[in-house]
Design brief:
This protein is an alpha/beta fold and about 260 residues long. It has an eight-stranded mixed sheet. Strand 2, helix 5 and strand 3 form a beta-alpha-beta unit. Helix 2 runs parallel beside helix 4. About 40% of the residues are buried.
Length: about 260
């Protein structure tokens, strides 16, 4: 009998592939595991527009559609990628699982700013986060799927304001980050925009320590209330948590950032 997880996520044997498209790996699995861990909340959230930026093989957007359920009507899915091969592979992966999404070949969400402004209820992003030479960022082919420039933040820092613009008032953002990306500073940057954040899953491998962070608009805290002192305290508390997380392997966490 197939496990509950297999029924609710894309099956690797049905995920299409191409030598210039990033295949599902530890970061992809961690992001989908975070969505599974938050599934009850996602179902209660009743999203009508879900979006993935950088769909790659289609494993994540397909899994999100399966997690929310084929039977749940009224949910629109949209996914973007700058790599034309990724768009083709994602279509094949979606079709193999009997789910659908609108696929758009574009850089992050270029050309969608007006159409999707304030409409996205759930956004998932596994960005290029690996620290690399700056000239590798945005390169053609598979390199663009991981090349993040200095501290792995070049693309992440472009995505954050786009997410802020596209997310609805109840919008949630799930993002993969690496310890080298300084996730505490990312949380801090989003806090200044009025977002609360929580680490859903922290996972350490032999090569990296990943954090899957969930962001949502916090209407109880206005930007004006985020003083320098409160930011210092917030940053200190998160920095104190991260070394402890790095000792856990494959663990889930509900600690706030």
């Amino acid at each position: 009998m197939a496990s509950y997880k297999e029924n609710r996520t894309a099956q690797i044997r049905l995920v299409s592939s191409h030598n210039e498209v990033y295949e599902p790996c530890d970061d992809s699995f961690a992001l989908v595991d975070a969505l599974l861990a938050d599934r009850t909340n996602l179902l209660e959230h009743c999203p009508t527009m879900c979006m993935e930026i950088g769909c790659g093989s289609g494993y994540v957007i397909t899994s999100l559609a399966l997690i929310l359920g084929r039977e749940r009507g009224g949910v629109n899915y949209i996914a973007t990628d700058i790599n034309p091969n990724a768009v083709k592979v994602t279509r094949e992966t979606l079709d193999a699982h009997g789910v659908d999404a609108e696929l758009i070949l574009t850089d992050i969400a270029s050309g969608l700013e007006n159409r999707l402004a304030g409409l996205v209820d759930v956004m998932v992003v596994n960005p290029p986060y690996v620290p690399t030479p700056e000239d590798e960022v945005g390169a053609e082919g598979i390199i663009s799927s991981w090349a993040g420039g200095e501290n792995g933040r070049r693309v992440i820092d472009r995505i954050l304001p786009v997410a802020d613009h596209l997310l609805s008032e109840k919008g949630w953002l799930y993002m993969v980050t690496l310890t080298a990306n300084n996730p505490s500073e990312i949380c801090l940057q989003m806090r200044k925009k009025g977002y609360a954040s929580k680490i859903i899953i922290q996972r350490s491998t032999e090569e990296e320590s990943l954090h899957i962070i969930k962001f949502w608009r916090d209407f109880d805290t206005t930007v004006d209330e985020v003083t320098d002192q409160s930011l210092i305290g917030f940053l200190g508390s998160l920095l104190a948590q991260i070394p402890l997380f790095s000792l856990w392997r494959g663990s889930n966490s509900n600690d706030n950032c």
